[in-house]
Predict the 3D structure of the following.
Amino acid sequence: MDLSYSPQEQAFQEEVRAFLADELPADIAARVKAGEEVSKADTERWHAILQSRGWLAQTWPEEHGGPGWGPVERHIFDEEAARAYAPRILPFGLQMLGPVLIKFGSDEQKAHYLPRILDGTDWWCQGYSEPGAGSDLASLKTKAVREGDEYVVNGQKTWTTLGQHADWIFCLVRTDAGAKPQAGISFLLIDMKTPGIEVRPIKLIEGGHEVNEVFFTDVRVPAENLVWKENDGWTVAKYLLTHERTGIAGVGFSIAALERVKALAARTMRGGKRLIEDPLFAARLAEVEMDLEAMKIFNLRMLAEAQRVGHPGVETSMLKIRGTEVRQALNDLYRRALGPAAALIPGEAPGGNAALVEPEDEAAAASYFNNRKISIFGGSNEIQKNILTKAMLEL
Amino acid sequence: MNFEMTDDRRMLADSLGKLLGSQYGIEHRNAVAYEAPFHDKAGWNALAELGIIYAFVSEDAGGMGGSGFDLLAVFEQMGAALCPEPLLGAAMAAPLLAEAGEDLEPLLAGEAIYALAVDELEAPWDAEGGTTEGGAALTGRKTSVYGANAATHFLVSARQAGKLALFEVKAEDAAVTPWGMIDGGGAGEVMLDGTPARCLLPDAGETIAAALDRGRLALCAEAVGAMDWCYATTLDYLKSRKQFGREIGSFQALQHRMVEMKTAIEQARSITILAADRMDGHTTAMAKSLVGRTARKVSEEAIQLHGGIGMTWEYPLSHYAKRLVMLDAQLGDADFHTARVAGSYA
Ligand SMILES: Cc1cc2nc3c(=O)[nH]c(=O)nc-3n(C[C@H](O)[C@H](O)[C@H](O)COP(=O)(O)OP(=O)(O)OC[C@H]3O[C@@H](n4cnc5c(N)ncnc54)[C@H](O)[C@@H]3O)c2cc1C
């Protein structure tokens, strides 16, 4: 057994580090580090930098403009990028729709949409969830009725992440109301500027605006915007979801989070001692570190297996559960390390007394609350357990 | 053995619950809780008129209570309604002012709003760890002063002649920088720079420690009230939310989590009752630690079991969830109090 990266992989890791050191704009990294919302402009800037290196569409094959990386390279990049406080790559166009079009799209669709994703012309969002259809996605109700060369769409999507910035939304819609839930669903691309679409913000627990409700009233969509076959959208949806789940362990985020908690605890004084010397706090941190070290290897084992057999296994669900638990535990310790000052609302540090909380730590509690989401979306942890139960136990 | 509340306390709790229900509906609550001065004068006056503050003071000193169970009766209701008013300061100030032989009438009538200023940046939750010094004037920096923006008076701990003393500082004399708390309500920093102060108790170490423990008990009771609310709300949601053609409450995986949650809440309630009965530092530390841990767990479970809706500002649960997590950071978190308990073993 050899747990280290191969010489080529090590060289690649060095290359990624050097790239991040040279190319990641310091102002953007600082905002990511401070837990501020990453603006549309920041995301676009970062995407463009990655694209100019050919590293943006990491899961796409080379013929469509991807870098030709395997799972290990992608993992190395994710880890290094998170540690350097790079903004996350927006997944909707690049990691979700792109692979779907490459597998299921028509030649015209590929030729039209893929380059526009790469050069940032189109910002995509994901229209899967509805108020009545969360974990049970197949119960979705948004209707699309074919009229000549158009679909007429009526209904509502919700939880649409960054839909306020989006040019396009990919939607699951019901095209056959009489069929069984999983049948009769289609995968449709909709221009957000079409008349009849209304986007309403949803404010989240910590006060931020990242999700929206999207309402469709008699929205007319050209029939050529159907991906794959009518009433067979579920096949497409499931393929997309397997892409959503890759990299979801968030190892890189947790490595960065662990380093921050350690640094904060090392400079925080509590009753004449540094917090890092407090046996209770240190023990908690140590336990999370053990979980994280184990998870790194678990993740690599899964990647090696995926590389061997050609697709990820059911272990992705285990990694999603453990990965979100570790991240949330680190978010919790980070907030706790600040003591009572963690309650300060970000951006409201009393003037002149900035030392109450360093600006880069102000969002600790807000991030903790916001990150409750990671065990809910992308298939909640309970749903992951159901998947594992079915796949493993044979009960 | 009798775990029933006395009639007096039950009546007080009932009327308080009704008053909070009518004065602090969640929208109004949020408007008050997230905007300076984080305090609603009319609501505060109504609380005072109901005689709530009298429940914090013994009959000898002119009040109508002062026991741990009085604190419990009041703060459970405050937690259940998520009321952001600075009642914690009054609960801690009452015994201090009584000990000092001060006129309690302004406090009891709600005219004077007191906030306790003991925390310092490098020694949170621990009055003895502070470095502020003084006599007729004080110099130092007090952080995390809850209710600072509404306060008319601060009770400040500071060293004088080698002892921890208690001083009163008028709000208009101090430089207060208020800040809003993420879970609602206000706190602030009090900057003292040769600020005029009046010494109330020259040797106040034990009295301040006891007052802080009363505050901790109040926070435990507040958490119990808020946890009960979260449990009931989550249970209702599990009964009404349908996925896969059935109520999500019919999934055994979620049923067991609800049972765990309820068991944990009953444990938290029980140790809070014990602390209210004993009113000693050791038991209060046990209660604050256990309740702190439980409150976070309940908060996280309640959000998770709701799914996305539990993450939204519009849904009241999210505000209860924030309060339940953040009250651990007030007056000593779970680790701080676990260390107090563990320290007694040596
Ligand atoms: C911040 C955020 C961003 C999101 N972004 C997007 C987006 O961009 N696009 C999009 O389409 N969607 C998005 N989502 C939606 C997300 O995918 C759903 O919230 C998620 O699938 C859960 O659905 P729900 O919220 O309706 O919860 P529900 O499905 O109602 O679940 C409630 C609870 O019941 C549990 N549960 C449900 N069924 C079972 C079962 N069979 N067994 C055991 N437990 C069960 C769940 O785990 C959860 O704990 C986002 C959500 C959030 C919170």
